[in-house]
Amino acid sequence: MSKPIWYFINSGACRPSFNMALDEALLDWHSEGLLPPVIRFYRWNPATLSIGYFQNVAKEINMEEVKKHNLGFVRRPTGGRGVLHEHELTYSVIVSEDYPNMPRTVTEAYRVLSEGLLIGFQKLGLDAYFSVPDTEEKKSDLKNPKSAVCFDTPSWYELVVEGKKVAGSAQTRQKGVILQHGAILLDLDEDKLVSLFNYRSEEMKARVLRGLSEKAVAINRIRKTPATIEECIEAFKSGFAEGLNVNLEPYSLTNDQIEYVKALETRRYANDDWTYRK
User: Fold this and answer.
1) How many structural domains comprise the chain?
2) Mean pLDDT in consecutive groups of 10 residues from the start of the chain, 278 residues
3) What range defines the domain where residue 262 resides?
4) Of 17, 81, 96, 164, which residue is the least packed, with the fewest Cβ within 10 Å?
5) DSSP string, 130-174
6) Known catalytic residues?
């Protein structure tokens, strides 16, 4: 029996607003039956701080530091907390909620869709596995995050290597379609990341910084030889194909599709009313 065909898009480095608009456009097209499920890889130009759909910019984000580091800034259509997209490969998965054997719950669907990430890390020679929060304190952290930093808090079925978080993901469901995207860290500048957020006190900021090094790790901190973007693309592309049991067919956007994305970008993700809304 032949495997289902999903499309594979490698977008390269794009504008922050274009990246988010393309993820949403792929969701639209899949919901309309114009495209099969999609795996997309992309990067960011410039390096960018993305924030979750529900985050409050004035309350949580230190915009002076964002500007000081010449970072892009964008609000995602997904939930979760702030992510610094700098030394990383970003992925997105677009698939119908009623895809065969797709769990109905967010956490279980995350587990299924992240199988490709798990295999990808293993193909890079890392001892990756899924971890479930095992204490009441960690479970409480999921409901009441202690900071606005994505890699500061555990989540269900977290991908970990040597007990530390190696990928941060977020998910939304719209029009009967799941959009899950996330960051695969090659390297991490903890000081820069922590500087981008507001804290109640310097003591709390210092505590988040200390905790980050204990909770998060980048691929090149633990791999004997540094991984390149090209290696990661190959490992995780193969991982998703294997983990989802599908064939990935390369796909390029048409000119009309690119114009659709640019229009959505202008209307939403490059619009301050969206980015800085309360």
Assistant:
1) 1
2) 95 98 98 98 98 95 98 95 94 97 90 94 92 52 41 57 82 95 93 96 93 84 93 98 98 98 98 94
3) 5-275
4) 96
5) EE---SHHHHHHHHS-SSSBGGGS--TTEEEETTEE-EEEEEEEE
6) 150
